[in-house]
Write a structure and sequence with these properties.
single chain; 338 residues; mainly alpha; 15 helices
Amino acid sequence: MFAGSLLQRTQYLAPRAVLIIVAYYLFTVFFVSPVGNFPLNDDWTYGEAIRHWVSSGRFELGASCATCFLHIALGGLACKIFGFSYAILRTVTLSLGFIGALAFYLTLREVGLSKASAGLFALVLVANPLRVNLSFSYMTDIAASSFTSLYFLFFVRGIKKDAAPNYALASVMLLATLATRQTAVVYIICNFAVLLTYWLRKRHSWTIMLALIVLPILWTWGLGQLMQHYSAYPAGYFWFRNELAAQMREFLHRPLGALFAYLVSAGQVSCYFGLFFAPVLVPCVLSLKDLFKSKVKILPVCFAISAGTISLTLAKVVVAGQKLMPFNQNLLRMPAVG
């Protein structure tokens, strides 16, 4: 009943969800403004690589933990056309972010959500303060998440229609994500899980095997070799890659032994999403009465698990570790959470 009442109050999103997302983007551009020929955050790393490439024609990558070749190529193409400027680079980020938001909306529609529900969650995504902050920089986060959204869109369509062209497009978007930020390698596990379900149904899909598993693995290896060759400071990249590999090995070899670490990570994710989903509750206060009138019973154990996990995280990370995550840290930089 509560969910139904909430969706009734968001029906105005149904016919104009995309227009509202466009309006929100225009509002943030007007309010924040991408203008200014100066770097923000750590995007000077990519900006200086682009500047050097545009001016000299030689590719040299500074301190970067990300396999950012596509990221630099897109920025370099824009700067070759319009001239080098961090304002141009931020415009590229904003454009990619908008495409990613639309892909996210369309993916939600593909999995069966109504226009109102998909519009609501797409707005939650684009209004995320961390996303807004990164949208006005030339960090790799927005580009990688946008390519990921496109990958999921085509992957879901491929599963629904069992269509090789959609799987091929999903493969292209996954390769684009990997060429922007290497943490997308974990999606290969998702692709293998889908392939396994095909095998269990005695169906064989060479398209998924080659396009979404074999090719991304070879692509990831090749990107690692390029990072070793072109990066002026490859130690940072290899540190990040080794951390991610260590987390995956721990998960595969000792899943129960690492349970405490996983609970802490789950609590961090819960705190993070709770923090940024909280504004959604404000226009829904009037609908809360429907929740209490509902006859649906929520098991006490659900509250206990949620409260226990979050409390454990706050005690371990904030109190014991003296870290303010999730309030001032970027989830995409944390291999354990990823």
